[in-house]
Design a protein that fits this description.
The chain is 73% helix and 2% strand. The chain has five helices and two strands, in the order ααββααα. A two-stranded antiparallel sheet has the order 1-2. A hairpin with a 4-residue loop joins strand 1 and strand 2. The two termini are 30 Å apart.
Length: 171
């Protein structure tokens, strides 16, 4: 039942985003369009959740674990990351890069590695923008998303979900 629900939701997302593709067909391949559309959906979901966690759940307060304290903007990033990871991986695997023949568990490992890189870039950028420059956390998260999206697309396309090459083993 859960698999049917997941399949239904992914098909609904594909139908929704493909509705807007025809006028862009001249400029974007379907793969790039799917990546951008899914990335936009995931980014908006990420920003809304980040704002929700930062403003409502954490109430802009430091999260003190006793042995370590997190600034609220860092804690919100940590809370949002697993959700964004799951949604982003699902979109990449089942919508954007469907042609990859790499086994799912290797895709997941590779995607997790990319997420780790992006998390460190995000954390560094947010720390710099919020604590160094003095920008508000939510716009800082949005600026950071643009940077990590560029990194992520290239790494996903050519590493996590690359199509089978002639000298590549499929594991």
């Amino acid at each position: 039942m859960l698999k049917k629900l997941g399949t239904y939701l992914l098909q609904a997302v594909v139908r929704f985003i493909d509705f807007f593709y025809p006028p862009l067909r001249k400029w974007l391949s379907l793969e790039l369009y799917h990546y951008l559309a899914c990335g936009c959906l995931n980014a908006v979901q990420d920003w809304l959740l980040y704002s929700f966690f930062y403003n409502i759940v954490l109430r802009r307060q430091i999260v003190d674990l006793g042995f370590f304290a997190f600034e609220p903007h860092s804690a919100a990033l940590i809370m949002v990351t697993p959700i964004t990871f799951f949604v982003g991986f699902s979109f990449s695997k089942y919508i954007t890069f469907r042609g990859s023949e790499i086994k799912t568990h290797w895709q997941l490992v590779r995607y997790a590695l990319i997420l780790t890189i992006n998390f460190m870039v995000s954390w560094g950028c947010i720390k710099l923008l919020v604590e160094g420059i003095g920008l508000y956390p939510t716009p800082s998260k949005m600026i950071t998303t643009v940077i990590t999206t560029l990194i992520s697309f290239l790494l996903q396309k050519y590493y996590s979900f690359r199509k089978h090459g002639r000298n590549e083993q499929l594991d």
